[in-house]
Design goal:
Largest sheet: 3 strands, parallel
Order of helices and strands: EHEHEEHHEH
Number of domains: 1
Structural class: alpha/beta
Strand content: 15-25%
Shape: globular
Strand order of the largest sheet: 1-3-5
Number of strands: 5
Radius of gyration: 13 Å
Length: 103
């Protein structure tokens, strides 16, 4: 099966913070790939940091819409410690949000 690889550096630069870029990547690349049940690798090579709002704009809707498929098919590579921490924060927030909707 084909994998989708998104190299964030080429879109957002060394510090990923532009939510419009994140939204564009989400709509044009991530959601269509998940709809095809493809693995999506989000590659942070060369990216030193990111904002929580960038990551939230990038992955929250795919997680909300596709739930387990998104959690299984979204992969991250070359994450610095700070990028990894922001991704974890967004995942934790999304997990709490999904748990609240199942009450």
């Amino acid at each position: 099966m084909k994998k989708e690889r998104i190299r964030i550096l080429g879109y957002a630069g060394e510090f990923a913070e532009n939510k419009d870029i994140a939204k564009s990547l989400r709509v044009e690349r991530i959601l269509p790939a998940l709809a095809r049940n493809q693995t999506v690798t989000i590659d942070f090579f060369g990216v030193s940091g990111t904002t929580q709002s960038f990551i939230h704009a990038l992955i929250s809707e795919p997680i909300r819409r596709y739930r387990d498929v998104a959690l299984e098919n979204l992969e991250y590579s070359h994450c610095s410690g700070s990028v990894r921490e922001v991704i974890r924060t967004v995942y934790d927030y999304m997990q709490e949000s999904l748990d609240d909707t199942n009450l």
